[in-house]
Amino acid sequence: AGDLDTAFFAAWIEEIARTVGVEKERLTRLDAAIGDADHGANLDRGFTAITQALAGTEPDTPGALLALVGSTLIRKVGGASGPLYGTAFREAGKCLGDASEVSATDLAAALQAALDGVQRLGSAAEGDKTMVDALAPAVRAMSRAAQEGKEPGEAIGAAASAALAGAEATVPMQARKGRASYLGPRSVGHEDPGAASTALVLVALRTVVTR
Ligand code: ADP
Ligand code: MG
Ligand code: MG
To answer: Which residues cross the membrane (predicted)?
Structure first.
């Protein structure tokens, strides 16, 4: 019951593209403080390309759709976040395989695969002030809810709240990975842009599931 189909995942990606478009200035402002002021533009370029790709083809499973999202991000977005987000979506897609519907348990496993991919590639741990600080608590919240037998909607709500709190918690951290780490202690006092965009991605998922 409440399982998620390809149309749901397509709506999620559309909602991410829409909110990245709305929030790109905020993301770029966060990156201006501790990076090179391109994070919003990077993601907007990637999700605009994804929207165009999806207008031309309709993948027939959630896994195939997420794989397309991942490879487009890798192809179109440079810097740190392109390969990291690209890997996250690709690994999530691979984890879902060719299933046509996704349960809360499947989604928890896919999010875990995304996190594993990000950490394999970027070797950031929690506390390093990166997207991992939003994604890891979201994965934990989703897994816990799925284990408790919650419906996808409730599990996603918990994951989105955890991601928002995780992003907020990067403010007092000192960056140990990525460009922001070059600032050393001067990276303290700013929200990490990648953690903020990860929260946006999970909030978009919540928006679509509560429609
Ligand atoms: P760039 O830093 O190359 O300009 P972006 O500005 O698009 O790339 O993305 C920056 C974000 O990428 C950071 O805020 C951080 O969340 C994330 N990031 C950077 N390095 C890593 C890493 N090694 N592991 C996980 N996330 C990282
Ligand atoms: Mg940047
Ligand atoms: Mg850059």
So the answer is: none
Contact 118, 177 (CB under 8 A): no
**Ligand index nearest the alpha carbon of residue 180:** 1
| 160: region left, alpha or beta (phi > 0 left; psi from -120 to 50 alpha) | alpha
Domains along the chain? Answer: 6-209 (1.25.40.340)
Which of 25, 131, 173 is the best mutation target for the ligand 1 pocket, counting ligand atoms within 8 Å of the beta carbon and taking the most?
131
Question: For the complex shown, is ipTM > 0.90?
Answer: yes
The pair of three-digit structure tokens given for residue 118, joined into one six-digit string: 């990000």
- Give the torsion through C-alpha atoms of 175, 78, 6, 198, to 10 deg: 20
Structure tokens at 46: 């990637």
Chain CA centroid to CA 101, Å: 20
Ranges assigned E (strand) in 127-202: none
Q: What value does the mean pLDDT take over residues 123-138?
A: 99
- Mean pLDDT score of the chain, rounded to an integer? 97
Ligand 1 pocket test: which of 177, 191, 197, 201 has the largest number of ligand atoms within 8 Å of its C-beta?
177
Whether pTM exceeds 0.90: yes
